[in-house]
Specification:
heterodimer, A: mainly beta, 0% helix, 54% strand, B: mainly beta, six-stranded mixed β-sheet, five-stranded antiparallel β-sheet
């Protein structure tokens, strides 16, 4: 298995632009997470999907952030409009188990908003 | 909610020496404690975990210990090698039906000096 696949690996954009991050979870995993990693705040859970349904989006910073999971093999995290404080590494992770324990992380998207 | 504190934030050891990273948690109901290793440019990867019904677990050169009474757990790496250099994260969760929330520590950057 190729593991969790994220794209792009790096994204540089200007303030105000729309940014879309993509994730393909491991086949058969029914839980998907989006995390944000910064030096100041560490790893923060943004949103959790179970069987393609958003269960907990309380970590989404504000309305500028949205996430979708149209099917079991694809998820997107969108920021519109982007701001410099959104600069961070964004990770997607999936898990095969319920209750969720072992997370399998992708390699992340390094986002820089200028 | 759960709060996980991790110390130290940085740790340098000579190759062959041991390294110890410590974490404390606040929620006495937490019962699952994984450790993740994050290499440069990659996502965190699970390296070992322990449940609250076990006091110690070992896997080759790494071991974890858990003190439920004191609510702290530790990662021990013996005979460190340069490839052990990475950022290590501890985490805690309540593992049960419907649970999904892992709370991560802020991480420890381990440098193994050849």
């Amino acid at each position: 298995d190729a593991g969790v696949i994220q794209s792009p690996r790096h994204e540089v954009t200007e303030m105000g632009q729309e940014v879309t991050l993509r994730c393909k979870p491991i086949s058969g995993h029914n839980s998907l997470f989006w995390y944000r990693q910064t030096m100041m705040r560490g790893l923060e859970l943004l949103i959790y999907f179970n069987n393609n349904v958003p269960i907990d989006d309380s970590g989404m910073p504000e309305d500028r952030f949205s996430a979708k999971m149209p099917n079991a093999s694809f998820s997107t995290l969108k920021i519109q409009p982007s701001e410099p404080r959104d600069s961070a590494v964004y990770f997607c992770a999936s898990s095969p188990l319920s209750p969720v324990e072992k997370l399998f992380f992708g390699s992340g998207t390094q986002l820089s908003v200028l | 909610g759960e709060n996980v504190e991790q110390h130290p934030s940085t740790l340098s050891v000579q190759e062959g020496d041991s390294a110890v990273i410590k974490c404390t948690y606040s929620d006495s109901a937490s019962n699952y404690f994984p450790w993740y290793k994050q290499e440069l440019g990659k996502g965190p990867q699970l390296i070992i975990d322990i449940r609250s019904n076990v006091g110690e677990k070992k896997d080759q050169r790494i071991a974890v210990t858990l003190n439920k009474t004191a609510k702290h757990f530790s990662l021990h790496i013996t005979e460190t090698q340069p490839e052990d250099s990475a950022v290590y994260f501890c985490a805690a969760s309540r593992s049960g039906a419907g649970s999904y929330q892992l709370t991560f520590g802020k991480g420890t950057k381990l440098s193994v000096i050849p």
